[in-house]
Amino acid sequence: MEHIRLLRPYIKQFFQRADIFLLVICTVCSIFGILMIDKAVVGMVNGGWNMSAPSKYIAVQVFSMFLGIGAFILFTIIDADILGSQWKLLCAVNVLLLVALVIFGQDDGTGNKAWIRFAGIGIQPAEVIKVLYIIVAAKQMTYIKEHEDIDGFMSVVAMVGHFVIVFGLIIVVSSDLGSGTVIMLIFLTMFFILGVRLYWFALGGAAVAAAVPLLWNYFLKDYQKKRLIAPYDPSIDPDGWGITWQTTQSKLTLASGRLTGVEEGHRTTVFTGKHTDFIFSVVGENLGMIGCIVVVILLSVIIIHIVRVGLRSGRLYDMLICMGVASAMAFQTFINIGMCIGITPVIGITLPFFSYGGSSMVTMYAAMGLISGVKYKLKPEHFSLIY
After folding, report:
1. DSSP strand pairing (113-118 vs 105-107)
2. What is the pTM of this model?
3. Residue 258 and residue 291: Cα distance in Å, rounded?
4. Which residues are CB-contacts of 110 (< 8 A; sequence separation ≥ 6)?
């Protein structure tokens, strides 16, 4: 009891200063997702898929949620400035994760060598790398803004070079085009928020256009090429039984839910990935269009809230972290839902807080902890874009 009494002021301070609203809404999303994962894995068992002990998936997701809440608390309390000051260590962690992928990486069934598994536990390093990249990139960009010319050639080369190294290593080591794409979009968002002149974006666009043929012919595998163009070229898989099979089944699943969802016992669409990348289709099947709208609203509220925290943060470094996390959330949400309805390629992007996956769950909560930490620290009186 004495320990509890001593801790009480710190607990009270945490609830007064931390972003409890963000924690609550993320937890609501997680519980919502767990309920849908339960529907997905039970449906796959009933449909004949080898999904032994469905309760295991629920247990893993629940444990990951509580572990994530712990990460949220930890990253709220640890000042992001302390993390940024250890950028060399964070870079070393990213390198070690990629080296571990080279040595111990396993295929996750999609052709991507994206997982490290031991003792029955799977870790997806790219999820951790995304969060660490946001912290280090924010630190780098802030330093350049404060000490150098952000439009100077060497400044731009340094920022772009950092991104290219991380992006390139992920693609080369794991062939994880999805995670690489998200990191690219995070970089572009933070680069724009920093205030770099638009002509650098034009030059970058020209350089990417020139590099596309090289990447297409020498780096992308055939199955990746087909996935990228399948949503826009029906001739790739005219019958829907090949590269677009999951998307075809996802659209059928969504359509079956109509407005309010399919009645219990009448769900017939079964395919792999329903509990991971295609959890949105499970929402549509069980809760219909109304359920899908609720999911979009919940995730939109989180994204808008993060942007608001960033604009009110009072510091460029904190704002860049918030915008990096918000962009990751927004792009993952758009791409994942696009995968489910057939307008974006299937590139292995999870729906934040909803899709099955411990690595994704814990790292998303850690990222939310960074946002809560921005709110937790005392805000200076100046440089606030929203008062």
Report:
1. antiparallel
2. 0.89
3. 10
4. 348
Q: Beta-carbon neighbour count of residue 354 at 10 Å?
A: 28
Give the Å distances, CA to CA, from 41 to 44, 64, 159, 210, 357: 5, 17, 43, 44, 13
> In which region does residue 113 sit, left (phi positive, over 0), alpha (psi from -120 to 50) or beta (all else)?
beta
Q: Which residues contact 353 (CB under 8 A, 6 or more apart)?
A: 26, 29, 30, 33, 299, 361, 364
Q: Which two tokens stand for residue 284?
A: 């549509």
Token pair belonging to 70: 């712990």
- The conformational region for residue 261 under phi > 0 = left, psi -120 to 50 = alpha, else beta, is left
What are the residues facing 107 on neighbouring strands?
Answer: 113
Q: What torsion do the CA atoms of 343, 347, 349, 354 make, to the nearest 10 degrees?
A: 70
Chain center to CA of 135: 15
In one letter, which amino acid is 334?
F
Q: How far apart are CA 314 and CA 311, in angstroms?
A: 7
Query: Residue 183 and residue 136: Cα distance in Å, rounded?
Result: 13
Tokens of 252: 């059928």
In a structure prediction context, what are the per-residue pLDDT tens digits for the chain, which is 387 residues long?
566 666 677 777 888 888 999 999 999 999 999 999 988 887 555 554 444 455 788 999 999 999 999 999 999 998 888 999 999 999 999 889 888 888 887 766 666 677 777 766 778 888 999 999 999 999 999 999 999 999 999 999 999 999 999 998 888 888 788 888 999 999 999 999 999 999 899 998 898 888 888 878 777 777 778 778 878 877 787 777 777 888 888 888 888 888 888 876 655 566 667 888 899 999 999 999 999 999 999 999 999 999 999 998 889 999 999 999 999 999 999 999 999 998 888 888 899 999 998 889 999 999 999 999 998 875 554 444 443
Rounded to an integer, what distance in angstroms lies between the CA atom of residue 205 and that of residue 349?
A: 24
- Who's near 339: CB < 8 A, 6+ residues apart? 247, 250, 277, 278, 345, 346, 347, 349
Distance of CA 341 to the CA centre of its chain: 19
Q: Are 169 and 163 in contact (CB under 8 A)?
A: no
Residue entry with tokens 């930890």: 74
Give the single-character DSSP code of 18: S
Rounded (10°) angle between helices 245-257 and 279-311: 90
Count CA atoms closer than 13 A to 371's CA, side-chain side. 31
